[in-house]
Design brief:
24% of the residues lie in helices and 41% in strands. With 374 residues, it is an alpha+beta fold. Among the domains are: 94 residues, conserved putative lor/sdh protein from methanococcus maripaludis s2 fold (Beta Barrel), CATH 2.40.420; 88 residues, Elongation Factor Tu (Ef-tu), domain 3 (Beta Barrel), CATH 2.40.30.170; 62 residues, Helix Hairpins, CATH 1.10.287. The strands form 4 sheets. The chain has a 6-stranded antiparallel beta barrel with strand order 2-9-12-11-10-13. The protein starts with a helix and ends in a 17-residue tail after the last strand. The mean pLDDT is 79.
Length: 374
């Protein structure tokens, strides 16, 4: 009985040991397979770096201002008798815009002219008598003064009438009319805005550190939000630095024959500063932006430490970025010419990751794309 029990226990032990050995071999094989497993290569696009000469530029936000701009207003009070313009039309210097009622002044002018004529006649009579020695010198002086006063009164009324004839002070584009026919205007009441649009100013501010690099006469490129592009020249640099911002205001003058630029319009400016700089230009999609530093991935032949085999992988390289231009970003340091850099798919890469290069479709790499923000 004891012998049979012993044999049964022995058989169970042998069976369990056999099963354990099989499972041990299976687990060991699974671990070995897991250790040798490699992720499939990521598909990326690349570009070979090269040096490019970029002219140094300074970008800034600007605002358009008219060379001459006013709100035409009434000089003297009066009632609007005639309106000789339409809103939004071009006018020339000296064109009559509004005529105020001058009936009272015309009547006063007629009376003053009559008094002037009477003073002239009296003075001529006195002159004849004075030449004959029949009138005292004092009477001649009095009549002469009265004649001059009458002449001055006529001139004063004529000036009043002229001031009630409101004219365009310079050629330009009218805004929206702000008065109506028959309306009473007090002195200083606005009538219509008038802006001279060609040429036109663009005002922008630059940091005080860059003032030495700007020169009067330097080229300035201006771009609007709707894609318009203009070129002009720097015509003035302010002599005072803003204490609050430590910026200096700069003024550029641009030709604007079609009136596409309007006073108050928001624009971006780019001014040439200094000489050209040698940089490596990459598509903006190449950059892996991060708080601890910006980097790119360089494609290289790498050796697998597990099996010693060579594969195409990536090395993460931290770089110093410069200004952007169109689709490109300038790399100031961290890369050498001739290196192959990943241009798309950087978000899924890590140091040493295996990659497969496929450049059938590559990201845009145009320094001046159209539209600019494409």
């Amino acid at each position: 009985m004891k012998k049979r029990l012993f044999l049964t226990l022995l058989a169970i032990v042998v069976f369990v040991a056999a099963i354990g050995a099989v499972k041990y071999r299976q687990v060991k094989a699974g671990i070995a397979k897991q250790m040798s497993f490699q992720m499939p290569p990521e598909s990326v696009t690349t570009i070979v770096t090269k040096n490019e000469a970029w002219s140094a530029t300074l970008a800034a936000i600007g605002s358009v201002a008219a060379v001459q701009g006013v709100t035409v207003s009434a000089d003297l009070p009066g009632i609007v008798e005639k309106i000789n313009f339409e809103s939004g039309k071009m006018v020339r210097a000296g064109e009559v815009l509004v005529q105020l009622d001058t009936k009272q002044e015309q009547a006063q002018l007629a009376a003053a002219q009559a008094q002037q004529e009477l003073s002239r006649i009296n003075l001529e009579r006195m002159q004849t008598l004075n030449q004959q020695g029949l009138a005292p010198r004092a009477d001649w002086d009095r009549l002469s003064a009265e004649a001059k006063q009458a002449e001055a009164k006529v001139g004063e009324i004529r000036a009043t009438i002229a001031r009630k004839t409101i004219k365009a002070p310079f050629s330009g584009l009218l805004g929206i009319r702000q008065v109506n026919l028959g309306q009473y205007l007090a002195a200083g009441t606005p009538i219509v805005p008038l802006q001279s649009l060609d040429p036109i100013y663009v005002n922008f501010s630059v940091p005080q550190q860059q003032v030495a690099n700007l020169k009067v006469g330097g080229e300035v490129r201006v771009a609007t939000e709707n894609g318009g592009k203009f070129q002009g020249r720097t015509t003035a640099i302010n002599s005072v630095i803003d204490e609050a911002t430590r910026n200096v205001q700069v003024q550029a003058t641009l030709s604007n024959p079609q009136g596409k630029l309007r006073p108050g319009q928001f624009v971006t400016t780019s001014s040439g500063v200094g000489t050209a700089e040698t940089v490596i230009a990459l598509p903006a999609s190449s950059i892996n932006y991060a708080p601890y530093g910006d980097s790119v991935f360089v494609v290289e032949d790498m050796k697998n430490p597990k099996d010693g085999k060579t594969y195409k992988g990536v090395r993460q390289q931290f770089v110093k970025l410069g200004p952007g231009r169109g689709d490109q970003v300038a790399i100031l340091s961290g890369l050498k010419p001739g290196e192959e850099v990943v241009t798309s798919g950087v978000f899924k890469l890590r140091q040493g990751a295996s990659v497969q290069v496929n450049n059938k479709t590559v990201p845009s790499n145009n320094p001046a794309p159209k539209p600019e923000d494409s």
